[in-house]
Amino acid sequence: MAQPLLSVSGVETYYGKIVALRGVDVEVNPGEIVTLIGANGAGKSTLMMTICGSPQARTGRILYDGTDITRMPTHEIMRLGIAQSPEGRRIFPRMTVLENLQMGAQLVAPEHFDSDLKRIYELFPRLKERASQRGGTLSGGEQQMLAIARALMGRPKLLLLDEPSLGLAPLIVKQIFEVIRELNKSEGLTVFLVEQNAFHALKLAHRAYVMVNGRITMSGTGAELLKRPEVRAAYLEGGAH
């Protein structure tokens, strides 16, 4: 079997003396969509940030495409082909949509820019309409599209998505998840998705993990976890829209 694209093993992360991640093991294989669900404060975003090197894991190992990235600085990790769309979007509000996309393409050879931009505008037609508008004046949904598009402009082999549905209307959430599915299907993009919206995330994912208080408590295919009564009770009751 091919080696995982991302392998997190025995990772513990601390904020000062507080343990945020407790012996976390997660694998993402090439071409997979893997999701991590859990309640707010479970440690999901901390895992995302630890993969990106800030904060760094105190114990354990993180391998990306066979390279040990556990102690690497963030900018070096990103150069290896990982892109992140962070929680809270964090676009550049004073820059235009186009300028935000140019920032995302910094590490890519310039000759790819026009074709990549065309592809992004096909995926997110709204961004094409808003190309000259400042990022900060976009709606929440448009800002989320821009955050994902900016990450995609870096031509990543692994896309890390942190809470892409947070605070968005159900229709926009559906659109964003459809784009992720399409990229995975048509281009084989590998996606690691952290998400509170368990229903959408598990329907989208090939495999999934559940995190409770910094520990992985369950794993399986997305379909398996959707059927588990304890997952339904904790994350899906009243939330399946």
TrEMBL record:
Highest taxon of source: Bacteria
| Sorted UniProt keywords | Amino-acid transport, ATP-binding, Nucleotide-binding, Transport
Pfam families membership: ABC_tran
Q: Name one GO biological process term.
A: L-amino acid transport
* Span of domain ABC transporter: 6-238
Q: What protein family is recorded?
A: Belongs to the ABC transporter superfamily.
Q: What is this protein called?
A: ABC transporter ATP-binding protein
